[in-house]
Amino acid sequence: MSALSPPHDAARLADDIAEAGQRLARVRAALGRVIFGQDQVIDETLVTLLAGGHGLLVGMPGLAKTKLVSALATVLGLTDRRVQFTPDLMPADILGSEVLEEGADGRRAFRFLEGPIFCQLLMADEINRASPRTQSALLQAMQERSVSVAGHLRPLPAPFHVFATQNPVEQEGTYPLPEAQLDRFLLNIAVEYPDWSAERAMLLATTGVAEAPAEAVLADGELLRLQALVRLLPVGDSVVDGVLRLVRAGRPDSSEIELVRTAVAWGPGPRASQALLLAARARALLQGRLSPSLDDVAALAPPVLRHRLALSFAARADGVTVADLIARLTEELG
After folding, report:
1. Which one Pfam family would you cite for this protein (predicted)?
2. Three-state SS letters, 102-125
3. How far from each other are the two terminal CA atoms of the chain, in whole angstroms?
4. Are 56 and 182 a contacting pair, CB within 8 Å?
């Protein structure tokens, strides 16, 4: 056991993890009844929430990204809002603004009207269609978990999480997120097409007279307790060293991997190491295990690193992909 194992009663911790695993199994089952063929996506969104982070959902239209976030809010007992991002969306449309009101006594005073960001789970739909100014306002609030309007700092609810979506096609008229802003997202979650059997089950379940709704599993405040439990999970030295080997191997200036030195324009920073270790802990709790393993690190390397690596122009011209590069990096885990 390493120094990353916090002091805690071992027997009680084991009981808490076992109970959390059972609760989270019910959460996964509840989501699986309304979201078909996306088990890995469901797990990665839950890992994001358990780790206390924000997620970026990338996939083609019609793959239930919006429905997934709405179902997450219901199942986890969170208040949720959805904002459709457009080029004319202003920061005040998300954060809120002050209005001048006149009372019955004739006195005038400013009153703050909260924007949709004042919720526990925000769906930022097609975030790359908003202007950089609006994107920055959202991402600053994501990082600081508070909003500053007219010189007043207003904290956001706890927990507070954002799931933003991006459409990988139709990039005309969009504003791609800069690398520094992409780094604010804990995981970059790839949403793929479901397989035959899952899509068939989805057709039968959603085109009839009534569609099964999502059902609440967790109550208010339970997610915060689970997030605190994630940080209590002990982590072995082999897992810590594995995270460092993998992330540091992706930096072209210090990597011993030839492909990285020739193909990577810039590599993952320390925030990637933090995200990978915290996400590995969250995945272990999601599966009811006492501590994370190198298998957790390998499984979460793609969503943690795919938005924290940039290929050089020459590498892209040669057909090298980020997925190929991450697969090579995971070999460093042994």
Report:
1. AAA_lid_2
2. ECCCCCEEEEEEECCCCCCEEEEE
3. 20
4. yes
Total structural domains within the chain: 1
**pLDDT for 7-19, tens place per residue?**
557 778 888 999 9
Contact 48, 280 (CB under 8 A): no
Helices (H) and strands (E) in the chain, counts: 14, 11
**Summary mean pLDDT of the chain:** 89
For residues 72 and 159, what is the distance between their CA atoms, to the nearest angstrom?
13
| Angle at alpha carbon of residue 246, lines to 241 and 248, rounded to 5° | 90
pLDDT in tens, 291-306: 999 999 999 999 999 9
- Taking CA atoms, 139 is separated from 85, 134, 183, in Å, by 13, 9, 10
The CB density around residue 204, as the number of other CB atoms within 10 Å, is: 9
What secondary structure, in 3-state letters, does 25-43 show? HHHHHHHHCCCCCCHHHHH
Q: What is the pTM of this model?
A: 0.92
**CATH code, domain with 279:** 1.10.8.80
> Residue 22 has what pLDDT?
94
> What is residue 1's predicted lDDT score, i.e. its pLDDT?
37
Domain of residue 295 covers 235-334
List Cβ neighbours of 53 (8 Å cut-off, separation of 6 or more): 161, 185, 186, 187, 275, 278, 279
